[in-house]
From TrEMBL, chain B:
FAS1 domain location: 38-161
GO CC entries: extracellular space
Source organism of the structure: Flavobacterium alvei
Lineage: Bacteria, Pseudomonadati, Bacteroidota, Flavobacteriia, Flavobacteriales
Pfam families from the UniProt entry: Fasciclin (PF02469)
SUPFAM superfamilies associated with the record: FAS1 domain
Name of this protein: FAS1 domain-containing protein
Superkingdom assignment: Bacteria
Length: 581, 488
C-alpha cells in the first residue's frame, strides 16, 4: 500500500516537474517570438547605419509639420487669406479667434517630432557610451537632430508663447499638457535655452561630404535635406537680439563657397547673383534682351528666371539658392500637402493671396517702370480660372502632364534670399545701415562705388570692414579684379526692382524696407508671421503686427477687423491656446 | 402653504418622472410606424380626396408610374378647385397635359423647412420655378405642406402651376401682331455678323436651334435660355418705327433692305437686359451690355408686365433713346493691334507692350515701337474697328512719348495696301498728316475728322512711323484711339 501510494506520489511529482520544465522553457522559446516585421530596441541602434536610419526617421516625422508650418506662419499674418472653400476652422486662424479644438492650432504634432528627437538623442548617447559609432559620427548626427528639435521649439515659442521645454523622452505624450509635471517657459526663457543648447552642439557645419548621410536617393542628393545649423543659430540670435552673433552665423553661411568651391560655385553660391541678360539661365526677374519694355517679354518659365527658383530641378542653379528644402515626390511618402491647399485645379483651393499682399506688390515699381513687382502677380500667384492662386508650390506639380497625377513639390525652408534679408536685418540693428541697404537693394558693388565708376577699382567696391561685414565685390579689368562678391546683385537688383530707401536711411526706415522685402520676396514660404512677431517684440510695438493683420481683414470687408486689431494690441493674444484632445 | 408647496413639488416631480419615462423607449422608437412611409407618392396622391383631379391627370399622362418608382421626387399638387381653373385646351390635349403635369414634379426633395430664402428649382418640364419662403412656389401658395411618402414629398398648392412660355416663345407667339417681335424672329434667317451665317449653317434643328442660330439670341442675350432671367422692352409698333427711322441715316449699307435690317438691329439690341426687373425694381436708366444708356419712362408701360418663365416683358408705348446715347464712341486700345508691318519676326522685338502708371496713378497699357538699330522706314501697326456708323467721325489719340525727343507719326484710316505691302495713300479712306508726339504728354490729342459713307467695320487702321531711318525718329507709340461719331 505504502509503496503504491509513494509510487503514485512520485508519478505525480514527476509529471508536475516535467510540466513545469516544459512550460518554463516554452515560455522563452515559443511565446517570446521576435516579430519579423517590427524592430525591437536592441535591433535599432547597433551601428552608424542604424543611426542614419534614425535621423531619416526624424526627418520623415518632421515633414508632417510642413502644411501646419505654412498655415500658421502665413494665414495668421497679412499676406494669405481664406477662400470660399475654407473651413470655419481655417477662418478662425485668419481672424485670430481660435477655438480650443482647432486642429490647425494643435501643438501635439510638434511634440510628436520633439519626442522622436529626444528618443533618438538619448539612444545616440547610449550608442556612444557603448562605442557603437565614433565620436565624429556621433557629433554630426546628434547635432543634426538637436538642431531640428531647436527649430521645432522655436516654432512652438513663436506660436504658443509659453511652452514646456522637454529634452528627455517621456512615457506619455499627454503629460506635455500637464503643467505640474512640465512647467512652461516663457518665449524669452525658451529662447535662452535654445541658444544655449544649440550654440553648444558639438558640430555646427553640414554633414561632411564623406558622411554616409550624404547620398543620392531616388535621384535626390540628400545634402540639402538637413537643417543648416548656422542659419538656425542666426535666427535664434536674431530673435534674442544678439545682432552681431546673428550676423556672424549668417555671414558664415553666405561665405560657404569661399571655404571650398571654384569658379562658378565660388562666385554664385548663396551670393544672390545678377541676371544673365542674354541666356536667362539665372534666378532673376528678367525680360527678353532689348525688349525690357515689353510686358510679354517677361522670362516666365520653370527653367529660367526668378520663377524657376521654385520649379527647377535640383541642379547647379538650384544649389546656388537653396540652403534647406525637403522634396515631395510621386512615389514616396509623405504626400505633398500643398496641392490640396493651394490649387484650384487639382486641389481644394483653401488659401489665396490677400488683397493686402496683392496691393503691396502692385505698389512697387520695376526697373523698367512697370507699375508692379513681377514677383507678385506674375510669379508668386497667378489668376487661374478667375481665382488668384498661390503658385510657388504648384509649378512643379502642374508642370508636367503625365498619365499619373504629378504631385512633385517641396517644403521651402531656407534659401539665399532669406539668408541675405536676415543678415541685413541683423547688420542694420548692428548699426551697419549701408551694408543692409546694399544687401537689400543692388548689392555691395553698386553701393560702394562712386559715380562715374573709375577704370581702376582697386580701392572701391568693397566694405573694408572686419568679419562679418567684410565684402569684396570688386570687378574691374585694368587692373583685373573678380572678387568673391562681384556677382552679387542684391535682393531687389535680382528682382529687377527700383531701390527701396536710400543710403543714409535710419535704422527703422531700413528695417521697415527689409521686412517689406521679406513679404515681396518670401511670401508664403512660411516666415511672415514670425517676421511680424519678431519686429513687433523688438520694437515693443504691437501695432506693427496688429495694423498689418487689420489691413488684410479690412480690405476684404471683414467686419471683425477692428476687433481683431484691438485684440492683437495685447501681446498675450498673439499666442494660440496650448491644448489638444 | 408650505405643505401645499411640498405637495406640488412632489406632484411635479412625479409627473415629470412619469412623463420622462413614458416618453422614451428608444429601442422601439427606432422603428417608425408612420403609415405614410408605406405608400408611394402615387398612392398617397391618389388616396387624398382633395387631389383626385390631379391624380387623374397623373394617370392619363403616365406620370403615375414615375411617382411609383424608387427615385425621390417633390410634387406640387394642385387642389381639385385649382384644377378646375385649368383650361380645357390643356386638359384635352395630351402634349399640353404632359407639359402641364411635368411642371409640377421635380426629381429631388424640397421640404418647406429649408435654410434658403429662395431658390430656383428645375421641374420635369425643363422650366424653372422659384421656391421662396416656406409657402410660395411660382405664383401658387402651398396650403398643405410636407406630405411625405415612401419616395418623396408633396405639397398641396392652391393654383395650378401651368407652364409659362419663356421670353423667346412669347416673342414668337406675338410676332404676327408686333413689328418688333416680327423683326426679332426674322433674325433667325437674317445675319448681322459673319459668324451668324456660319452658325446658321452648322446648327442642327431642335428646340435649342434658335438659341444657337438666331442673330439676336447669339449676339445680345439668349432669351430662350430657361436658366437665366432677362427683361425685354417690347416697343409698340409706332415707337419701334420711330426709333428705327432715327437710326437709319447712321446705318447706311449698300442697299436699302440691309440698311433697314441694321437700323432695326441696332435699335432692338439695346432693349434686353440680363436680369428680371420687377416693376418696383425698375431703375430710371439701364445700361446695355454695349454701353448704351437707355432711359426707362415707367409712365409709358402698357398694362401690367408679362411674367414669363425666364423673365419679364414690358410692353412700351414709347422708348425714346437720343442719338447721343445711341451712337457709341469707339475706343481702340493701342496694345490690341491686329498686325504690324513689315511682319518679319525681327520686328516683333521692336514692339513693346508696356505696363504703366500715369501721373494720376492710373494704370494703363500701351504699345510702343522703337528701333534699336538703324532700320528702313515704312513701319506701321494695324488695328480694326467694328460696328462703325455711317457718319462723320472726330478722331483723337492718347500717345505717350517716353523718349527724350519729339517724333512724328500719322494715322491712316481704311488703309489700302500695295502689292509690296506698303500703304497706298491715294486710295486709302483717310490719311491724316504726320503729327509730332510731345514728350510725356498724357492728354488726348485731336487728330482730325473723316466721313464714313457706309456703316460697318473699318478693316484696317494704321499707325505709321516717320519715313526716316534715324533711330528714335521712326518710333511709334499709342495708348488708344478714340473715334467720336458726329450727329448729322
Amino acid at each position: 500500500m505504502i509503496t503504491t501510494i509513494s509510487t503514485k506520489t512520485k508519478k505525480h511529482t514527476l509529471l508536475w516537474a516535467i510540466a513545469l520544465v516544459f512550460s518554463l522553457s516554452s515560455c522563452s522559446d515559443f511565446l517570446d517570438v521576435v516579430p519579423e516585421d517590427k524592430l525591437v530596441e536592441e535591433q535599432v541602434y547597433r551601428n552608424v547605419y542604424d543611426a542614419d536610419a534614425a535621423v531619416i526617421g526624424v526627418y520623415g516625422k518632421f515633414m508632417a509639420l510642413a502644411e501646419k508650418n505654412v498655415i500658421l506662419n502665413e494665414m495668421r499674418a497679412d499676406l494669405m487669406t481664406t477662400t470660399r472653400n475654407s473651413s470655419p476652422l481655417l477662418k478662425e486662424i485668419s481672424e485670430h479667434n481660435v477655438s480650443a479644438n482647432n486642429p490647425y492650432a494643435n501643438p501635439k504634432d510638434f511634440y510628436i517630432v520633439i519626442q522622436n528627437c529626444n528618443d533618438v538623442l538619448k539612444n545616440f548617447d547610449i550608442m556612444l557610451a557603448q562605442k557603437k559609432f565614433t565620436q565624429g559620427e556621433y557629433d554630426q548626427r546628434y547635432s543634426d537632430i538637436g538642431a531640428i528639435r531647436s527649430w521645432v521649439y522655436l516654432q512652438l515659442g513663436i506660436h504658443y508663447g509659453s511652452v514646456p521645454y522637454i529634452t528627455e523622452p517621456i512615457e506619455n505624450l499627454e503629460d506635455v499638457k500637464n503643467i505640474s509635471k512640465f512647467p512652461r517657459l516663457s518665449f524669452n526663457e525658451l529662447l535662452d535655452k535654445l541658444v544655449e543648447f544649440t550654440e553648444n552642439l558639438p558640430y555646427k557645419d553640414l554633414y561632411s561630404a564623406e558622411s554616409s548621410m550624404v547620398i543620392t536617393i531616388d535621384g535626390y542628393n540628400t545634402a540639402k535635406f538637413f537643417i543648416n545649423k548656422e542659419c538656425l543659430l542666426g535666427d535664434l540670435q536674431l530673435w534674442k537680439g544678439n545682432y552681431l552673433a546673428a550676423a556672424n552665423h549668417y555671414k558664415f553661411v553666405m561665405e560657404t563657397a569661399t571655404r571650398g568651391g571654384a569658379n562658378t560655385a565660388l562666385y554664385d553660391t548663396y551670393r544672390v547673383k545678377f541676371a544673365e541678360v542674354i541666356t536667362h539661365d539665372d534666378l532673376a526677374v528678367g525680360y527678353v534682351r532689348y525688349s525690357e519694355q515689353d510686358a510679354k517679354g517677361l522670362i516666365d518659365s520653370n527653367t529660367q528666371g526668378w520663377r524657376s527658383i521654385f520649379a527647377r530641378d535640383r541642379d547647379q542653379l538650384w544649389n546656388d539658392e537653396w540652403i534647406w528644402s525637403l522634396p515631395f515626390e510621386n512615389n514616396f511618402a509623405p504626400k505633398n500637402p500643398f496641392i490640396k491647399l493651394f490649387s484650384n485645379k487639382n486641389g481644394d483651393y483653401l488659401v489665396k493671396p490677400s488683397q493686402s499682399a496683392i496691393d503691396l506688390w502692385n505698389s512697387q515699381t520695376q526697373a523698367n517702370n512697370f507699375p508692379y513687382d513681377a514677383r507678385g502677380s506674375k510669379f508668386t500667384y497667378k489668376i487661374v480660372n478667375g481665382d488668384p492662386v498661390i503658385m510657388k508650390y504648384l509649378y512643379s506639380s502642374e508642370a508636367v502632364t503625365s498619365t499619373v497625377a504629378n504631385t512633385k513639390g517641396q517644403w521651402f525652408l531656407y534659401r539665399a534670399a532669406k539668408l541675405h534679408l536676415r543678415y541685413a536685418e541683423a547688420a542694420n540693428r548692428n548699426n551697419q545701415q549701408k551694408i543692409a541697404y546694399a544687401i537689400l537693394n543692388f548689392g555691395i558693388k553698386s553701393a560702394y562705388q562712386p559715380d562715374p565708376i573709375p577704370t581702376d577699382v582697386t580701392n572701391i567696391q568693397q566694405t573694408l570692414l572686419p568679419f562679418p561685414y567684410d565684402f569684396d565685390a570688386r570687378m574691374g579689368d585694368f587692373p583685373n579684379f573678380r572678387a568673391n562678391w562681384h556677382r552679387g546683385a542684391g535682393i531687389r537688383g535680382r528682382a529687377y526692382m527700383k531701390a527701396a530707401g536710400a543710403i543714409g536711411d535710419d535704422m527703422i526706415t531700413t528695417e521697415n524696407n527689409i521686412i517689406q522685402e521679406d513679404a515681396l520676396e518670401l511670401a508664403y514660404e512660411g516666415s511672415r508671421w514670425e517676421d511680424l512677431v519678431r519686429i513687433a517684440l523688438r520694437r515693443n510695438d504691437p501695432a506693427f503686427l496688429a495694423d498689418k493683420v487689420y489691413d488684410k481683414l479690412s480690405k476684404e470687408g471683414n467686419s471683425n477687423a477692428s476687433t481683431v486689431r484691438t485684440k492683437l494690441m495685447n501681446v498675450q493674444n498673439w499666442y494660440l491656446p496650448f491644448n489638444w484632445n | 402653504m408650505i405643505s401645499l408647496k411640498l405637495i406640488y413639488k412632489i406632484l411635479f416631480v412625479s409627473i415629470l418622472t412619469i412623463a420622462l419615462v413614458s416618453c422614451s423607449d428608444p429601442w422601439s422608437d427606432r422603428e417608425t410606424n408612420d403609415e405614410n412611409l408605406k405608400l408611394t407618392l402615387k398612392e398617397a396622391i391618389l388616396n387624398n380626396p382633395e387631389t383626385s383631379k390631379f391624380a387623374e391627370a397623373l394617370v392619363k399622362t403616365g406620370y403615375d408610374k414615375v411617382l411609383a418608382s424608387s427615385l425621390t421626387y417633390t410634387v406640387f399638387v394642385p387642389t381639385n378647385d385649382a384644377m378646375d381653373q385649368v383650361p380645357v385646351s390643356i386638359l384635352n390635349n395630351t402634349d399640353n397635359l404632359v407639359l402641364f403635369v411635368s411642371n409640377h414634379i421635380t426629381p429631388a426633395i424640397y421640404s418647406t423647412v429649408r435654410d434658403k430664402a429662395s431658390e430656383k428649382i428645375i421641374m420635369y418640364s425643363n422650366k424653372y420655378l422659384t421656391f421662396s419662403g416656406t409657402n410660395t412656389i411660382g405664383d401658387a401658395t402651398i396650403t398643405t405642406p410636407d406630405q411625405y411618402a415612401k419616395n418623396g414629398v408633396f405639397h398641396i398648392v392652391n393654383k395650378p402651376l401651368t407652364p409659362k412660355l419663356n421670353i423667346w416663345q412669347y416673342v414668337n407667339s406675338v410676332s404676327s401682331s408686333s413689328a418688333m417681335s416680327k423683326y426679332l424672329v426674322s433674325l433667325t434667317e437674317l445675319n448681322i455678323y459673319k459668324a451668324d451665317s456660319i452658325a446658321k449653317l452648322v446648327t442642327a434643328p431642335g428646340v435649342y436651334a434658335d438659341s444657337l442660330s438666331n442673330s439676336y439670341l447669339r449676339n445680345v442675350y439668349n432669351l430662350n435660355n430657361e436658366k437665366n432671367s432677362y427683361t425685354l422692352f417690347l416697343m409698340d409698333d409706332g415707337s419701334y418705327t420711330t426709333e428705327v427711322d432715327k437710326l437709319k441715316p447712321y446705318l447706311i449699307k449698300n442697299n436699302a433692305a440691309r440698311s433697314d435690317t441694321y437700323a432695326s438691329y441696332f435699335t432692338v439690341r439695346d432693349m434686353a437686359f440680363p436680369k428680371a426687373y420687377l416693376p418696383n425694381e425698375l431703375p430710371n436708366e439701364l445700361t446695355t451690355r454695349f454701353g448704351v444708356k437707355i432711359p426707362i419712362d415707367k409712365t409709358q408701360i402698357i398694362g401690367s408686365p408679362i411674367v414669363l418663365s425666364n423673365g419679364i416683358i414690358y410692353r412700351m408705348k414709347k422708348m425714346d433713346v437720343t442719338l447721343e446715347n445711341r451712337l457709341l464712341t469707339k475706343i481702340i486700345e493701342g496694345e490690341n493691334n491686329t498686325s504690324f508691318f513689315p511682319s518679319t519676326s525681327g520686328n516683333r522685338a521692336t514692339i513693346f507692350y508696356r505696363d504703366r502708371k500715369d501721373p494720376a496713378n492710373i494704370l494703363y497699357n500701351d504699345i510702343a515701337q522703337y528701333h534699336r538699330v538703324t532700320e528702313g522706314p515704312n513701319f506701321f501697326i494695324n488695328y480694326t474697328a467694328s460696328d462703325m456708323y455711317s457718319t462723320k467721325y472726330k478722331v483723337y489719340w492718347r500717345a505717350i512719348n517716353e523718349q527724350s525727343n519729339v517724333f512724328q507719326q500719322r494715322l491712316i484710316v481704311g488703309s489700302v495696301f500695295k502689292a509690296d505691302g506698303t500703304i497706298d495713300l491715294t486710295t486709302s479712306l483717310m490719311a491724316f498728316p504726320y503729327m509730332g508726339v510731345d514728350i510725356k504728354k498724357y492728354d488726348e490729342v485731336y487728330i482730325g475728322e473723316f466721313p464714313l459713307a457706309q456703316a460697318g467695320d473699318i478693316n484696317t487702321i494704321s499707325l505709321v512711323a516717320a519715313a526716316t531711318t534715324t533711330i528714335g525718329n521712326n518710333s511709334l507709340t499709342l495708348d488708344y484711339l478714340k473715334f467720336v461719331p458726329v450727329i448729322k
